[in-house]
Every structure is written in C-alpha cells, then in structure tokens.
Amino acid sequence: MWLGPSKDDGQPVLGPAVSLTVLVLSLVLTAIAAVLSVVIWYGTREWSRGRRWAVAGPLVVVAVGVAVLGVGSLFPARWAGDVMLGCLLLIAAAAMAAVSAQVVRVRPSAARDRLRKRFEELRKDRPR
Description:
With 128 residues, the chain is mainly alpha-helical. Helices cover 73% and strands 0% of the residues. The protein is built from 4 helices and no strands. The protein starts with 15 loop residues before the first helix and ends with a helix. This is Integral membrane protein. The chain crosses the membrane at residues 20-42, 54-77, 83-104.
C-alpha cells in the first residue's frame, strides 16, 4: 500500500483532515506529557527510569510518525495551507521530542520545599 500522494491529485500524504487530526492529537499528548513532567518534578517520590520511559517512549514513537507525516505533507504541497500544515506538524514533532527528553531527565527536586516556604512567607507578609 502506497501512502504517498496519488499521481493524479497531488494531495498530501494522508490528506488535510487526517493531518489536522494527527496535529491536534500530538499536541494533546505533548500537553499531557508536559503535565506529567511537572508532576515528576514536584513529586514526593522519585519515578523509576522505566516509569519515565513508559511515558516518554510512546511520545517519541508518535513524534517520529508526526515528523514523517509533516515531511510527507511538505513535498507534494500545492497550496500555502499544505506547507503551513507540514510546518506545524514538524513543530509539533520537535515539541514532543523536547518534552519526552525532559520527562526522561527530570528528577524530583527541592523546588517543592522552596515553593512551600515562599508561599508561607507571602502569607505572613499579606496585610490582614
């Protein structure tokens, strides 16, 4: 099965509707992974490396698929909208890769304690 553009219509790889759906789903997955990165950062216990890869691994796989779809949308593009969609897909793939790298690297920190201490200071300074 050939996933490239058909020879007669010059449409992007899977069409604009599928590409937009993939773009939205990739951004949702990226947002979920970013939230998990913050949860890991401010978490009370350290996540194991396997657990972090369980979040980042599928995100990397989807990022590669989105990048392939983005590149495939750029080459047969006839309209500026096709080019823009391909660029957005490539940006989404880069964002997914960056977030997945952060999920793998992040460790719990003392930031949670510093944040709690700062909130207590602000509470004391607040006029009553």
